[in-house]
Amino acid sequence: MGPLQIKEILQTAPENQAVTLKGWVRTKRESKNAIFIALNDGSTIHNIQAVAEPGQFSPELLLSVTTGACLKIEGQLVESQGSGQTVEVKITDILVYGAADPDAYPLQPKKHSLEFLREIAHLRPRTNTFSAILRIRHVLAFAVHQYYNDNGFFYLHTPVITASDAEGAGEMFRVTTLDLNKLPRTEDGAINFKEDFFGREANLTVSGQLEGELGAMALSKIYTFGPTFRAENSNTTRHLAEFWMIEPEMAFFELEDNMDLAEDFVKKVIAYALEHCKDDLNFLQSRLAEEEKNKPQNERSIPLLEKLSFVVDNPFERLTYTEAIDILLKSKPHKEKKFQYPVGWGIDLSSEHERYLVEKHFKKPVILTNYPREIKSFYMKLDEDGKTVRAMDVLFPGIGEIIGGSQREDNYEKLLERVHEVGIDPQTIWWYLETRKFGTAPHSGFGLGFERLVQFVTGMGNIRDVIPFPRYPKSAEF
Ligand code: ATP
Ligand code: MN
Fold it and tell me: What region holds the Aminoacyl-transfer RNA synthetases class-II family profile domain (predicted)?
């Protein structure tokens, strides 16, 4: 459909046939005998080289062929004279769709820092790095849908606007149509949300899980894949205020089954990317190697493709929270007081602890289970001992927590008790509680932060660089 893309043209056998190229100029190079234009249309990391003869085009026209300009080039597809590509295009005609004034266009063919590129997020998809990331992001999203479809899951669309603050997963963004300058008040002076759009307080969702559970109690296996919002003021390289989450929820799955699914799922989608994003991954691998070339050999990270294959080919380490605490208590950094935060049964593991377990101790992805009930959500199923819950976190090297999940509490009385314990008004989630009254069933689910997965696969250090238009504190440009 539509004109042939550069990716397809690059794979075509050259027979002097007429071709039309449409894309953006990456570079123009003039030598004594020829003018070379490298054109890219985003369909592939590779540029196509188009060649003109000196004097073939007017100096005025050539002046507007600069980095960033958009062109239509007519020509013949021929075998390439130069090295590095098999085909090139002998130009017969050039049409400049849109020039890009070189004095003003910020993306010149030189190295730009990722921080600078974040300030020009409207243009950064035109760089090799970001176009590669965006293509990989697409392939991973496709692989996610394919995986669940192939495994009998139904894609459930959970609401973006919610009125329940039950998940407690993070600070919420308020949704309102009230006039902030003229807030309606009740008699005692509080804001009268009865006059707001929904007749009550509403927020952007922090997770689709609760509604996902409703779906699982009818369709057995569902998944959500949508945007989630957390107004957490965390300026880390792992948190966004708006991110995409994949949340499968399955009836008749216990914690073991949940772990098996989580492990199989991430392995399959990473394997899919390895198979379908070779060129982009190779590019990103070299980019990382380049970034680290000044580091001593023993401090360099393992090559990206090797890292991904390792995760696909090796079983994740599974252990309980209690076992993990024992390992941490016996660890060198603990004994030498190198950890910033104290270690002991009951603590919420901080990222330094998770990183020690994953990167130093096991050197592979880890699934931690059976966390203390106090540090986990109310809906997680209590273990027999009453002290721990059937939670599971999947921890990845360089990322930390990539998945958080659990078997859900399916017993009405126990769930209600926990609801009271954590101070949620049962009235606000009456519909959630009813699933435990009518045909309750053992069930489980988890949430995977899509950007953390993209971060892992692309090797990018900052989560702000794996989503087209990142949202974080004090930043909602574009
Ligand atoms: P963390 O401790 O890293 O903040 P969390 O415990 O708040 O994570 P969950 O509420 O379990 O995370 O959410 C499920 C998954 O969503 C996490 O495992 C992670 O991959 C992802 N995630 C959570 N918060 C964010 C965020 N602010 N930005 C991007 N991804 C996130
Ligand atoms: Mn969080």
Answer: 134-468
